[in-house]
Amino acid sequence: MKNTKIEARKISLESVVKNILTVRKISASDRKTLRLALFSFRSLTVTEKEQIKEVYEELKAGRLSLMK
Fold first, then answer.
1. What CA–CA distance (Å, rounded) separates 47 from 53?
2. What pTM was estimated for this model as a whole?
3. 4, 18, 34, 47: most buried, per Cβ within 10 A?
4. How far apart are CA 52 and CA 31, in angstroms?
C-alpha cells in the first residue's frame, strides 16, 4: 500500500483535476489519486480541497463520466 501512495502523490492533485475537467472523464488512475487524496483529506491544502469539491460537483451534475 505504501508504494501505491507514493506513486499516486508523484502526480500532483492539481494536474489530475485539470486533466479531469479538460477531458470530462475520470480514468482509473485519476480515481486512484482522488481516492488517496480523500483518505488524507485533513492534510490537504484549502486549494486541493476546493479542487476535489469542484470535481465532485461536476460529477454530481453529470458533466463528467467514469472510465473503466
1. 10
2. 0.78
3. 34
4. 11
Tens digit of pLDDT for each residue in 4-32?
454 445 678 999 999 999 999 999 999 99
What's the CA gap between 50 and 37, in Å, rounded? 12
Q: Are 16 and 30 in contact (CB under 8 A)?
A: yes
Q: Given the C-alpha cell 476546493, which residue does it identify?
A: 50
Which of helix, strand or coil describes residue 1? coil
Nearest Cα to Cα of residue 17 among 55, 50, 68, 64? 55
- Written as nine digits, the cell of 35 is 481516492
Residue (of 59, 27, 56) closest to 41 by Cα position: 56
> Half-sphere exposure (CA, 13 Å, Cβ side) for 55?
29
